Automatic annotation (TrEMBL):
Taxon lineage: Eukaryota, Metazoa, Chordata, Craniata, Vertebrata
Protein name (database record): WD repeat, SAM and U-box domain-containing protein 1
GO function term, MF aspect, one: ubiquitin-protein transferase activity
A Pfam family this chain is assigned to: WD40
Signal peptide range: none
Length: 492
């Protein structure tokens, strides 16, 4: 997709998978569950798609709101979808039948601009145009508490990964941290000049000594995306510190979202672009240009390397993040100059195809062996296992000098591979092998999926790294690490 993505060193690791054209007005929000994508719009409807092929479900569109639908979010289990609207209601939908499960009227009947569910599915918050907040018990759909910030409109809300606190953002420009009793724990005044537009907690919790730390991303009318550290001390006090200010977009930034592993951050802007960042290092990775108007919504899939972006052009674009390996998708790593001596992808030798081996022979002045190697289907693995005996008896290479030259070149290849050294973070802590399907376990470490699943099944749910019990056996795909491994393989 040469005309849709721009980035630096590892050009275009993202490709446009498809565009959804079903909404009749601005797309205001999009949200993923494990298997579904939900979008909502100024056309008063929500649309639900299967993420396996992005076909629309039989009960879609959902038509229960009387005015524009501003926000939607799935329950963590994916069984329910929550949406809020200018009609002053927050609606809970069944994702089994498409039927309305509950309608919650906001106190004061003010237009509801934002809604958010806690990760433990116990609480829901709705925020309105008059600055009021409503905290609901989600299982019973009963109102528990209310709060307010005067003279502003609530437009952003996100629960912490522990579900015990939540952050709100308003058109006044402040970020406020609340507990479940509606006590304000911290207020960050003027977090964004001219107003906050969105905020989202990173999914991970960092802890050390007497401090527990969360990460939060926020964006606003000041054209900035900011990453914050929120520290909770043993005394119960909270402190908020700005870590990074990201300036990859040239106009107000309207939406932002973390990947499920917390390592990527995406944002959409009035400048019609989508920016994807390395959240840990605060580095712009890609700028995606496909929408024709403001990008109002963005979301990462929790289970697949997919991003959805919604726009005032009434479309939703689905982007696929590539892992950098040869032959996957439309990554620019497999285009451009082609696989020649100047620009050929240098994978691990064991990953070389027969064609890679042929090209290497030509580069090393051994072109006379190309036909013989092709006839015997010699790939990278076979190349490294060649011996004097196999060259003479199986490949029938009669020249002793030619056999010796080839073996010297193969030994050089092996030496180069050994010297390159695989970064330790790319190795599974259990198998000490390069990971192919890295996942994050509850202890915060990344493992090869098959290895950690086997460990959990046989080691009574303890962490291989800390020996402490794993609080959950849930494994989250580490797409960012998989892409980093792919990029490393292309340069070694």
């Amino acid at each position: 997709m040469d005309d849709t993505a721009e980035k630096g060193p590892a050009l275009q690791m993202t490709s446009l998978l498809c565009t959804l054209h079903d909404h009749l007005d601005d797309v205001n929000w999009c949200a993923f569950s494990a298997k579904l994508l939900a979008t909502c719009s100024g056309d008063k409807t929500l649309r639900i798609y299967n993420t396996s092929d992005f076909s629309e479900l039989s009960f879609s569109p959902l038509s229960g709101h009387g005015y524009s639908v501003h926000c939607c979010c799935f329950s963590p289990c994916g069984q329910f979808l929550v949406s809020c609207s200018t009609d002053a209601t927050t609606v809970v939908w069944s994702m089994v039948t498409g039927e309305i499960e509950a309608v919650m009227e906001h106190p004061g009947r003010s237009p509801v601009r934002i809604c958010a569910l806690s990760p433990d599915s116990i609480h829901m918050v709705s925020g309105a145009s008059d600055g009021t907040l409503a905290l609901w018990d989600f299982p019973s759909k009963q109102l528990r508490r209310t709060g307010a910030v005067n003279d502003t409109t609530m437009v952003a809300c996100s629960f912490s990964p522990c579900s015990q606190v939540f952050m709100t953002g308003s058109t006044y420009g402040d970020l406020r941290l609340w507990d479940l009793n509606m006590n304000q724990l911290h207020a960050e005044k003027n977090a964004h000049d001219l107003g906050v537009t969105c905020c989202t907690f990173a999914p991970s919790i960092l802890s050390g000594g007497q401090v527990v730390q969360f990460r939060l991303a926020s964006c606003g009318q000041d054209s900035l995306l900011k990453i914050w550290a929120i520290n909770k001390f043993s005394s119960g006090a909270y402190k908020m510190q700005r870590l990074h200010t990201l300036t990859g977009q040239s106009a107000p930034v309207l939406s932002c979202a973390y990947s499920s592993d917390g390592q990527l951050l995406v944002s959409g802007s009035v400048d019609k672009t989508v920016a994807v960042y390395d959240a840990k290092n605060a580095v712009l990775l890609y700028t995606l240009k496909q929408h024709e108007r403001y990008v109002t919504a963005c979301s990462f899939s929790p289970t697949s390397p997919l991003i959805a972006t919604g726009s005032m052009d009434k479309t939703v674009n689905i982007w696929r993040l590539e892992d950098g390996c040869s032959g996957h998708g439309e990554s620019a790593l497999t285009s451009g100059e082609g696989r020649n001596s100047a620009g050929r992808l240098k994978l691990l030798v064991t990953d070389w195809s027969e064609e890679d081996v042929s090209e290497w022979l030509v580069e090393e002045g051994l072109e006379r062996l190309v036909d013989k190697f092709r006839a015997n289907n010699i790939d990278g693995t076979e190349l490294l296992s060649l011996t004097k005996e196999t060259l003479a008896s199986e490949l029938l290479i009669e020249s002793v000098g030619l056999r010796n030259k080839l073996l010297r070149k193969v030994e050089e290849l092996k030496s180069e591979s050994a010297c390159s050294g695989i970064p330790d973070e790319f190795l599974c802590p259990i198998t000490r092998e390069l990971m192919k399907e890295p996942v994050i376990a509850a202890d915060g470490y990344s493992y090869e999926r098959e290895a950690i699943e086997s460990w959990i099944n046989t080691k009574n749910r303890s962490s291989p790294m800390t020996n402490l019990p794993l609080l959950t056996t849930l494994l989250t795909p580490n797409h960012t690490l998989k892409m980093a491994i792919g990029r490393w393989k292309t340069s070694h």
